[in-house]
Amino acid sequence: MDDIRTIMLSIADLDYPLQVQLGGKQEEFTREAVKQINDKLNTYRSAFPNLPKERYLAMTAFDFCYRNLELGEMKDTVPFMERVKVLTEELEDYFRKE
User: Fold this and answer.
1) Nearest to 38 by CA among 6, 15, 5, 17
2) Got the DSSP string for 18-87?
3) Would you list the domain boundaries of the chain?
4) pLDDT score at 2
């Protein structure tokens, strides 16, 4: 089993300790997620100065959740696979007749 260590994450100027497994992608993904969150927060801070921190956090959470839902929809290949199956069967039937 991989070793576990505690890393410090800084999100919106607040520090959070988080335990991650060493030797895998967890630490890399965690650090990249924090970077993306802070980048998005800073984008909102620049675009809408003087708002409370909670507003930036809420807008950032909404943005990431919305994008996650979009990506989930894009990965839903079931309807396409069903259509490919039907087309494959039609092609097989056609070639059997020849």
Assistant:
1) 15
2) EEEETTSSHHHHHHHHHHHHHHHHHHHHHHSTT--HHHHHHHHHHHHHHHHHHHHHHT--HHHHHHHHHH
3) 4-97
4) 61
CA distances from 39 to 8, 27, 33, 53 (A): 17, 18, 10, 14
Structure tokens at 60: 């950032």
Query: Distance between CA atoms of 7 and 19, rounded to whole angstroms?
Result: 6
E strand or H helix at 97: helix 78-97
For 39-54, the pLDDT digits (tens) are 999 999 999 999 999 9
| pLDDT at residue 82 greater than cutoff 60 | yes
Measure the CA–CA gap between 78 and 87, rounded to whole angstroms: 14
